[in-house]
Amino acid sequence: MSEWDWGRPEELSERMDAFLVDGAACDKLEEVARPPYDRTTLGDLGVTGVEFAAWKSHHPAALASDVVPLRSPDAAAVPGRVYRVDGEALFAALDICEPLPFADGSVDWVYAEHLIEHVSLTAGTAWLTEVRRILAPGGVLRLTTPDLATYVDGYRSGDTFFSRHRGRMRAAGLGPPMPARRAFMFNQLFYLYGHRWLYDYEELAYALVSAGFPDTAIERRAFRDGARPDVAELDRVLRNDESIYVEATVPV
C-alpha cells in the first residue's frame, strides 16, 4: 500500500478496476437460463427479486448482478445469462445502462447499494425507469447511496463524522489512512470510486418521480428498516454512517 496515493484519483480508479476484476472469481459457473425472463421463468429458479452491484446476494431468493462478469477457471459469465455459482447462488452480468432483460412486473423487489452514484443522472433515471417497469404491483425498490447532505453537514460542523468514516474505511483495508483534512474528505466523495452524480433525499426523490414512481410512494428509511425486512437486511454495516436509505413502492 506504500504506493497508494489518495490524491491521485486516476491511479486509484485503475487500482479499483483491477480489484474488481480480480474479485469477480468463483470455482464453478453453471448456466441455468437465458433471456428474456418472465415471472414464471424466474419463479422456477426461485427468484423473487434482483440485487444489483453484487456478485453474491445474502437473500435466498435473489438474483445477484453486476456489470463485472464472474468467471471460473474454465468459463466466464456471458452478459444477460443466469448462472448458478458454486452450486448455490444465482448471478447474471447486467449493465444498468442497458435495458434489463426482464418482462414487465416480473419481480417483487429490487435492491441496490451504492450503485446509482456511479452513473450520470440521465443514466440513473433511465435505470430507475427500467426498475419501475420490472417491479410487480406492490413491488419495492430499496436504494442506498452516499448522502450528500451528511457530507455537507460533516464539513460545515466539523463533528466526528469524517473521523468515524476514515476509521471505517481503514478497518475495511482500503488503502492507507485517509487524510484528515475536511476538504479532502468532501472531495473524495465526488472524485474517487468512479462516482458520477451525488444525491441527497430531494435529488433521489426527483429521479424516482422522473422514472415513474409516485411521490407519495417514496419514503426515507433507516439502516435495515424497511417495508420488507428481508430486503432491508441486505444493508451493509460498513456503509451505514454515510448512506441515505430510500424506498419506492409500485402502486397496486
Largest sheet, strands/sense/barrel: 9 strands, mixed
Give the amount of beta strand, in percent.
15-25%
- Derived from helix and strand composition plus strand pairing, the structural class reads alpha/beta
Oligomer status: single chain
Helix content: 25-40%
How far apart, in Å, are the first and last alpha carbons? 52 Å
Instruction: Report the uncertain regions.
Output: none
Counted beta strands:
11
- The neighbouring-strand order within the major sheet is 1-6-7-3-2-8-9-11-10
Radius of gyration: 18 Å
H/E topology pattern: HEHEEEEEEEHEHHHHEHE
Q: So what's the overall shape?
A: globular
Mean pLDDT: 94
**Number of helices, counting only DSSP H or I runs of 4 residues or more:** 8
